[in-house]
Structures are given as C-alpha cells and as structure tokens.
Design goal:
single chain, 740 residues, alpha+beta, SH3 type barrels, 8-stranded mixed β-sheet, 6-stranded antiparallel β-barrel, 19 helices, 36% helix, 18% strand, globular
Length: 740
C-alpha cells in the first residue's frame, strides 16, 4: 500500500498539470478572442468614420457648388450628390441583328454588373483617420470603457465562434474557465445561445417531422429596411432529399424557403427525417399548406403593419417535382410537365423525340385532361376523372401546378444534359468517342488553365478523368466558359464540337440577364436548342433524347416569363442543404441536432436587403510614376466582383466602348472619382463563327497589349472578363456572367 501511494499521488499530480495546461490554453484562446473583438471594433470604427467623412465631403461640395458661380464650367454629379448612371440603359435595339461588333463605337455584348444608380459611398478600409477622438464604447487605444462592454462583446464573439462548427462541449469548457474572470457569463452553451429545452417533433408515417414555420423564420430574418424597400414578401420554395450517410437509408427532406432576390439566403421551414422520402405526402405538407394559405389570405404582420405575402416559384428537381405534384416521374410515358408528349420505348429507356405537342396549363392539370400524366390509386379506373387520382395538398391553396413549377438549370442543363453529352463522348461507342490522345490532351489543357480563372470561381478546372465527380458549378463553368477552348482540339470531331457550340450559345444567352430581356434573343436560343436536340437524335439515336434533353425545348419560355436561368436555379438551395448536413455532429438523433443548430444560428445579419452600391478600395499602393494625383490601391470590390491589379486574370475588364483592358492601377482621385489605369488589347476577333459570331455574345479572341497607358473612370466599366490563354499566344476573353 505504501508503494501504491506515491504512484497515486503522481497520477493526481499529472492530472492537475493536465488540467492546468488545458486551462492556460483556453484562457489564451479567450484572450485571442478578445483581441479579435477589439480589432473588429477598430475596423468598424474606421469604416464608420470613412462613411462620415465621405458624406461630409459630399455635403461640403454641395455647399461650395451652391455658393459658387452659376456659370460653373463643369458639373461633377459624383461629388455633388446628383444621380449618376453607372451603366447604360438597356437599349431596345439589342437583338442579335442589332448587336454591333467589337469595333463599333456603341455598346456591345452588354454584361454589366454595375447597377443603374449612383455610388452610395466609397469605403476605403486602409484609409484611417480620427474624428472627435471618440470611438463608441472604446477609447482611441481600442480599450473598452467598462466591464459591461467587455462582457457584451465577449458574448457576441463567443456566439459567432460557437456558430462556426465548434463542439458544444468545448464551448462549455471555455465558459467554465472564463467564469472566474467574468462571473456574469453563462455556465452553459444552452444559455449562451438561448437554446430551447425541447423541440416540437412529431411522428408521421415512416419518420419524424420538425416544423419551424414560415412566420417563425421570417420573424428572425426580416428587417424594416427590407420591408420598406419591397413592400411585400415574396418567397421561393425548394423541396429535396438529402441522404445523411452512405451506409444508411436515413434522409432529410427539408422544405426550404428563400426571399426573392439574388443575394438572399435560404431558411428551413420544415424538415422530415426518415428511411427514404415521406410515405404520406398529406402529412408532410399539411402544416406548410395551412400556414401558407393563412399568410396568402391575411398577409404577414410585422410591427403592427400587414404586408402581402405570396409564393413565387417552386424550384425542385424532377423526382421531387413528380413526388410533390403526384404525377408521373421522369421515366414515365407522359412525364413531361410542360407538354403532353407521349414517350417511346427505345433501347431499354423512354425517349421523347416529339417536340411540337400541345402545352399543359394550370387548368388542364386541374381538370386531369391527360390522365396518364397523373398518379392513381391501385385498382382505380383511369377513365374516371373524379375517382382514384391522388391530388397534392398544394392544390388547396391555389398553386399553379404548371406555371409555378420551374425547370431548374442546375439539374436539367448542367448536371443533366451536358453531363449526359460528355458521358456519351467518353463512354458510348461511335465516331464521336474521344480517343486516348484527345482525352489526355483535353485533361492536360484543363489542368494548365486552372490558375487562370478569376477569384469568383470557387471550383477551378480539374482533370477530365474525374468527370463523374464534377459538381454543378463545374459543369456550368465548363459549358459557359472554358469548354469552347478545351474542346477546340484537332483530335476532337469537328461536327461534335459544333454540336457543343449549339448548346453553349443557347445556354449562354439564357444565362445572361442582359440577353433574356429581348424576346428576339430568346427566340434565337430556342432555335439553337431545337437544332441541338435534333442533331443529337441523328448522331446518337433516339436513346439520347431523355426527359432532360426534351425539356430543353421548354427552357426558353421559362426564361421569357421569369428571367435568366440563375433567377430560378437551385444553386443556393443546394448550398443550404450542404450546411444542414454539416451541422450534424453524429448520427444520434439527427433531426433534433439540426433543429437545435438552426435555432442557435443568428441569420439576421445575413439579410437581407440588396447590397449597397459601395465601391471598396483595399490595400494601398505607391507608384511614384503615376500621373493621376490621388490615393492608389491594389484591389477594388463592388458587390461580389473583385478587381486585383496584382493578378492579371483578376484585372481584365470590358468597357462600354468595347475595349478589353488589363487594369494596372486603381486611383481614388482628389475629385472623389475612382480612376482605373491600364492597357488595352489592340487586336480583337471572333473566337468562333458557328452557329453565330461569338462577338455577338461578347466573346472575343484578343492579342497585342498596347504599351500606352489608358485612364478611364470606373463608371465606364461594363463587366469583368475571364481571360484564358490560347495556344497561339492570344487570349480568349469571356464576359463574366455569374457571381460565384
């Protein structure tokens, strides 16, 4: 026993040392968090003071302008506060017949990401100065005035840190060690995040359902600023399956909502968890349909005021649409949701080669004019219009079962038709199949241009051998941008390349917010898509004309009524599904985990108004040879577009006059304007001529960079461009269509 006692004491000592070490580590982490908070506060202070200084300078300019001579030689709308258009009004003469080529003095290939409004401010984070020596809750040294301020911002920082995927146990440990220093801190993460004690979960059929609600979600994210600018609440709905594990059939089936707008973030309305999809559609949709009907009838109340509420689009993939609408799936004979085509069985699959069948309407769907399109109970008489059919609960709230359901480009075009086309080139035997040399050289070309893509692309090119693992954004990038370059290969069949260009040109038009505003352009895209479908049928046979390929026929009408493809795609909903899955810590009670994580999130700061027209200038630069007086910068950020003068492939832009320019410097002039300094390409030409001249889409081959320096206002920029090196020392220049 005496020998055991020293060993026991040594164990206790080691345990105490370990606890002390862990405590020191956590205290150091807390200090780091506090320093981060102080730095964040200083940055916020600088941005606020910069905005105040900008406003003051504009106000002083107005006063000087008013007190000056009425016969002023020049009027500067940027400094005077008058409205200035950053990009031209869309011309009514911008159809394919009227779009002028690159050498014209008029605007061509308009892909402007600049809104038609004046600057609301120029934020320069690197330019700091003091104002009245005050800094809110901190003094000039960045130190809080009292302990309450420290605790307030420490709590805020802990919530942000805890919402980034940190295990709750670690948060409890940190709170335990910080408690002696800040007794007012909570003892548990549950108090820190205001986590409810229980989650209302009910059993339905083959799983469980958590219903959060539309009102509850909107209450958390809506602000007066958004409501004042929109005056109504319009949301899009997405429903999709999300497998949780590769070795289990457990799935999430969430109903996601998203406020209408380009930069909005989806939110969960209800989530089902079970083995496969919900067996009982009525129970799955019942709560959603009931609340949506109440909101559409009575409106949404916010701070005593009633705002109109409506659902704009249901954006789902094909299997989910068939499930929710209770109609035949994409392998059925009467599967098309937009027309009454009857499929044909060809080589072990149903194909839809007929392209001119009568269109469906909401009324024909409700009347069940084509009974073969709808699901029926087993043993029901298919000729009976009233008995046997399974009706979806969505019809109870007047949902347009044809007009409100969109054809999603994510699954239909990029991950559907285009993936099928590339798969046919690689796997299907025939004269179109890529030989080993062509496959290898295309892969090498993709890898070689990996570093040439702008920062807006989250997924740069990778080897073609991994094509089965490509994501939707990679298929979109390959179809709209680098595909026309890498497939233009001597070993690639010329006719197959032209077939690819038919699809590329049509989708490039429909994905452009500029081109889809003109019906002539949409008609051209429809013509190209119909030619693509017929060319594929003659090349690969009718077996290629699957549900997705046939649905291309209806894509033009979708864009004619609802705008560019990105206006009703599932890209942002797929991103939200990914975040839902990543919020799980284990496989134990996944629905409860997801519900708690969602209730702990602070989504209010993600909304939810359209971004301001602020130009942010970042990282000061000193070039003693610059002729324009002012402060020089390396980077310029505008919305989600970034120009970086230190990286050639992030500094290419197109001006309203049609020049392609590499930006070398960014100057904030003494007059308050943003001046860009760069060199333009002297030679431009079409990159392809079939099925139309590429310059009509703004796609050019450029060369010979001019050595003379060019100065131009940022207001003259039309769009950022993707610049890819070609084999003959030139470059392929493509207007940037999407903000990734």
């Amino acid at each position: 026993m005496e020998n055991a006692k020293p060993g026991f004491e040594r164990a206790l000592k080691r345990r105490a040392e370990k606890i002390s070490s862990e405590k020191s580590r956590l205290v150091a982490a807390a200090s780091k968090v506090q320093r981060w908070v102080q730095e964040l506060r200083r940055n916020e202070r600088e941005e606020f003071i910069n905005e105040e200084r900008s406003f003051s300078s504009h106000l002083e300019s107005e006063i000087q302008s008013d007190s000056g001579s009425a016969n002023s030689a020049e009027f500067d709308p940027l400094t005077s506060g008058e409205s200035e258009q950053l990009n031209p009004q869309i011309s009514s003469e911008n159809s394919f017949d009227n779009i002028e080529s690159h050498h014209s003095s008029s605007t061509s290939g308009g892909y402007s990401h600049l809104p038609e409004s004046q600057f609301s401010g120029i934020n320069m984070p690197d330019q700091s100065f003091k104002k009245d020596g005050s800094n809110g809750n901190m003094d000039e040294a960045g130190i809080f005035h009292d302990e309450d301020d420290k605790v307030k911002y420490l709590l805020e920082s802990l919530r942000k840190w805890g919402s980034s995927g940190v295990p709750m146990r670690k948060i409890d440990e940190l709170l335990f060690y910080l408690k002696p220093l800040y007794p007012i801190l909570p003892s548990s993460y549950k108090t820190l995040f205001n986590t409810p004690k229980s989650i209302p979960i009910k059993s339905i059929g083959n799983g469980k359902l958590w219903y959060r609600g539309i009102r509850e979600s909107l209450n958390k994210i809506l602000t007066w600023k958004y409501l004042h600018s929109h005056q109504e609440i319009i949301i899009d709905i997405n429903i999709d399956g999300l497998p949780l594990h590769t070795s289990s059939r457990t799935e999430f089936w969430p109903i996601l909502g998203c406020l209408a707008g380009k930069y909005q973030v989806p939110f969960p309305i209800t989530v089902f968890c079970g083995k496969g999809k919900p067996e009982n559609l009525n129970m799955f949709l019942n709560d959603f349909v009931k609340e949506a009907g109440e909101l559409m009838e009575g409106g949404y109340e916010y701070d005593g005021r009633i705002f109109p509420f409506r659902i704009r689009h249901y954006i789902l993939d094909a299997p989910a649409r068939a499930f929710v609408k209770q109609c035949k799936g994409h392998t059925g004979y009467a599967a098309c949701e937009k027309c009454t085509v009857i499929g044909e069985w060809v080589e072990d699959r149903v194909t839809y080669a007929e392209l001119n069948c009568p269109l469906r309407t909401d009324e024909s769907f409700q009347r069940r004019d084509q009974l073969e399109h709808h699901l029926h109970a087993p043993g029901a008489d298919i000729d009976d219009h009233d008995n046997g059919e399974w009706r979806t609960p969505l019809e109870q709230i007047g949902t347009g079962m044809v007009s409100q359901f969109r054809l999603d480009s994510f699954h239909l075009v990029y991950g559907g038709v285009f993936k099928r086309l590339v798969g046919a080139w690689i796997l299907w035997p025939g004269p179109w199949k890529l030989n080993r040399n062509a496959f290898s050289e295309i892969s090498d070309k993709l890898v070689s241009i990996k570093s040439c893509f702008p920062c807006e692309f989250n997924r740069p090119p990778r080897n073609l051998q991994e094509w089965k693992l490509y994501k939707g954004t990679e298929w979109r990038r390959l179809l709209c941008y680098d595909g026309m370059l890498v497939f233009k290969h001597r070993a690639f069949n010329v006719n197959i390349y032209k077939q690819f260009l038919l699809l590329h040109c049509a989708i490039f038009i429909l994905a452009s917010p500029y081109h889809v505003q003109q019906n002539e352009n949409i008609e051209k895209a429809e013509e190209l898509l119909e030619a693509f479908i017929k060319h594929c049928a003659s090349t690969y046979g009718k077996r290629f004309i699957s549900y997705n390929v046939h649905s291309l026929k209806h894509l033009g009408n979708e864009c004619r009524e609802h705008g560019a493809l990105e206006e009703f795609s599932t890209f942002k909903f797929e991103n939200k599904l990914k975040s839902l899955k990543e919020s799980l810590r284990s496989g134990h009670k996944p629905l409860q985990q997801l519900a708690f994580r969602e209730l702990q999130r602070d989504d209010r700061k993600k909304i939810l108004s359209e971004p301001q027209n602020d130009v942010k200038l970042i990282h000061k630069l000193k070039n003693p040879f610059e002729d324009v007086p002012g402060i020089q910068y390396k980077k310029l950020k505008y919305h989600r577009i970034t120009y970086n003068t230190k990286r050639k492939y992030d500094s290419c832009c197109r001006t309203k006059s049609g020049d392609i320019i590499i930006i070398k410097n960014i100057v904030h002039s003494q007059e308050g304007k943003v001046i860009l300094v760069g060199n333009k390409f002297l030679w431009q030409d079409d990159f392809y001529h079939y099925p139309l001249n590429s310059s009509k889409l703004g796609i050019l081959k450029v060369n010979r960079l001019d050595g003379r320096t060019l100065h131009f206002d940022f207001n003259d920029v039309q769009s950022k461009c993707v610049l890819l090196p070609d084999d003959d020392d030139g470059f392929l220049c493509i207007p940037l269509l999407h903000s990734f």
